[in-house]
């Protein structure tokens, strides 16, 4: 989607329906009032555009969610930062500036979706356009509740359910449990899948809007998370994954038979809309996800303002099989690796990396001179690379996991992922094989290793082991020898408390809902 083009219309809707941090605030704001807005097709399109404003927000899919993902064993915080440390060590209150707006922003998106679902059916407009816009609203509402339920809900309490039917209320209690939220997500995503067109039908101008495969893909992932509470959902996850594969849009892994290049090319600008794309943060030089710049070497070797956060651990590096060299190199830079940076060839060395390693997945925009694909303002380091949230490889791994958990054979989808990396197939794949494959395929992505460890029941054991890295004798010399060091103390993960994150205290106070237990 051409984000900049739609910003004025997004602002119009923001003014018309309000944008309070408190999602119970329902009073319209601004000169364009609620009563005179919902009249035309243009109004409906403006409303649908406003659904996406938080997608490229720094505190959302820039780095906000990554503070949660950073709790995993795959990475450490690359710079001394007390707030990040408190989140990583589960000492957070939920009110820190890095994460406090995630909850409210998701509910703002839900509010905008509710307004569309309530008002657009009565607008006289093209029927196909109406269906698409309603489908976008159902998708973004389901998408938002998916994250709310997964981060803040559990078997003891879900998050408040606000729909077009009850949004005029002044108080919303918590749902009985996360499963109640997932039921709404399921319903919304199924409606979205019925109403939305295939991605392949979109013009370039509309790429980035919700589409059928995105709805089906997140439906599969919803069942994946829901299955920890209800084992019958494994069958649903398998079916939803198959629906993505059979939607008619030609979903497939990028696999030309060249393992050295194929996996790496998934994260190339030219493949922003490849057959592997399911859902991403649409990015550009001026707007989009700042994650590539956040992961870049701090100060970018004096040439660009990288931020130096979220560095891979030696444990992640060592998880790759000896033969998995191409996928590992495409994921992680280590001392001595040759790469292109701002039009020049470099060999990797870092005076800033705590681990002696850097994530490499999002580095392709930095191969070229700054003016080609980068925001010239390094304080807002967006690039032309769309940052993937869900891609087809994960759909295959969801299917494999669902099959294995049902006692079926999951070798076929699992081995499709391995074959692209140039690896030999496994026979009779186990859940351990699946966990390994998710880790190495999806490292450093929004797929979320931390939530995987939590839902598998592995987080307590994983975090009781201190992470390691390499300290090189000369941090400016790519060939310098290194010592393996312990990077930080092991962490205490309480599976009765830390499996969810705390709801921001101001939300608890203003909405009078109970905080997650133990926080």
Short description:
With 519 residues, this protein is mainly alpha-helical. 43% of the residues lie in helices and 7% in strands.
Protein model, in words:
By secondary structure, the protein is mainly alpha-helical. 43% of the residues lie in helices and 7% in strands. The protein is built from 22 helices and 10 strands. Strands 1-3 form a two-stranded antiparallel sheet. Helix 8 runs parallel beside helix 10, helix 10 packs antiparallel against helix 11 and helix 17 packs antiparallel against helix 18. The radius of gyration is 22 Å and the shape is globular. The two termini are 39 Å apart. The N terminus is likely disordered.
Produce the secondary structure layout.
Elements: H1 3-17, H2 34-37, H3 41-50, H4 58-62, H5 64-69, E1 75-76, H6 82-88, H7 100-119, H8 127-152, H9 178-195, H10 212-226, H11 233-245, H12 259-265, E2 277-281, H13 291-295, E3 311-312, H14 314-319, H15 325-331, E4 332-334, E5 338-341, E6 344-347, E7 357-359, H16 370-373, E8 387-391, H17 392-405, H18 411-420, H19 431-441, H20 449-456, H21 459-463, E9 468-472, E10 482-486, H22 505-511
Antiparallel strand pairs: 1-3, 2-8, 4-7, 5-6, 9-10
Helix pairs in contact: 1-3, 3-7, 3-8, 7-8, 8-9, 8-10, 9-10, 10-11, 10-17, 11-17, 12-15, 17-18, 17-19
Helical content stands at: 40-55%
User: How far is the first residue's CA from the last residue's CA?
Assistant: 39 Å
Number of DSSP-assigned strands? 10
User: Tally the helices: what do you get?
Assistant: 22
- Main sheet: strand order: 1-3
Share of residues in strands: 5-15%
Cα-atom radius of gyration: 22 Å
Largest sheet: 2 strands, antiparallel
Give the mean pLDDT.
94
Rough shape?
globular
User: Which consecutive residue ranges, at least 5 long each, have pLDDT under 50?
Assistant: 3-31
């Amino acid at each position: 989607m051409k984000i900049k083009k739609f910003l004025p219309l997004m602002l119009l809707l923001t003014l018309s329906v309000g944008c309070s941090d408190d999602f119970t605030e329902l009073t319209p704001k601004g000169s364009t009032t609620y009563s005179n807005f919902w009249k035309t097709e243009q109004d409906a399109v403006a409303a649908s555009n406003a659904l996406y404003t938080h997608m490229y927000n720094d505190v959302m899919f820039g780095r906000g969610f990554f503070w949660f993902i950073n709790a995993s064993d795959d990475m450490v915080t690359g710079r001394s930062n007390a707030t990040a440390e408190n989140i990583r060590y589960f000492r957070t209150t939920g009110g820190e500036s890095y994460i406090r707006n995630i909850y409210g922003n998701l509910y703002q998106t839900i509010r905008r979706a509710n307004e569309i679902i309530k008002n657009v059916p009565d607008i006289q407009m093209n029927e196909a356009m109406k269906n698409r816009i309603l489908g976008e609203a159902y998708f973004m509402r389901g998408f938002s509740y998916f994250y709310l339920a997964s981060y803040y809900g559990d078997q003891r309490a879900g998050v408040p359910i606000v729909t077009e039917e009850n949004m005029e209320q002044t108080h919303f209690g918590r749902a009985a449990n996360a499963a109640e939220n997932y039921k709404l997500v399921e319903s919304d995503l199924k409606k979205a899948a019925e109403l939305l067109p295939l991605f392949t039908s979109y013009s370039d101008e509309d790429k980035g809007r919700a589409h059928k495969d995105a709805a089906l893909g997140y439906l599969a992932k919803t069942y994946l998370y829901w299955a920890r509470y209800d084992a019958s959902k494994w069958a649903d996850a398998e079916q939803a994954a198959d629906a993505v594969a059979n939607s008619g849009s030609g979903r497939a892994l990028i696999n030309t038979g060249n393992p050295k290049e194929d996996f790496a090319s998934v994260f190339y600008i030219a493949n922003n809309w490849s057959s592997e794309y399911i859902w991403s943060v649409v990015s550009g030089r001026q707007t989009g996800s700042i994650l590539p710049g956040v992961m870049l070497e701090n100060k970018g070797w004096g040439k660009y303002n990288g931020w130096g956060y979220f560095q891979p651990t030696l444990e992640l590096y060592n998880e790759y099989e000896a033969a998995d060299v191409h996928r590992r190199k495409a994921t992680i830079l280590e001392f001595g690796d040759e790469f292109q940076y701002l039009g020049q060839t470099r060999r990797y060395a870092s005076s800033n990396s705590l681990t002696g390693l850097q994530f490499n997945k999002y580095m392709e925009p930095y191969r070229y001179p700054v003016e080609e694909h980068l925001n010239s303002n390094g304080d807002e380091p967006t690039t032309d690379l769309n940052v993937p949230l869900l891609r087809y490889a994960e759909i295959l791994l969801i299917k494999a996991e669902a099959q294995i958990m049902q006692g079926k054979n999951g070798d076929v989808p699992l081995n499709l992922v391995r074959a692209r990396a140039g690896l030999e197939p496994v026979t009779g794949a186990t859940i351990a094989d699946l966990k390994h494959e998710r880790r190495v395929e999806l490292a450093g992505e929004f797929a979320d290793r931390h939530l995987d460890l939590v839902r598998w029941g592995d987080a307590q054991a994983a975090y009781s082991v201190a992470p390691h890295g390499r300290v090189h004798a000369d941090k400016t010399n790519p060939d310098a020898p290194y010592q393996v060091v312990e990077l930080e103390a092991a962490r205490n993960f309480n599976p009765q408390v830390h499996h969810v994150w705390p709801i921001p205290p101001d939300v608890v106070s203003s909405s009078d809902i109970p905080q997650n237990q133990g926080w």
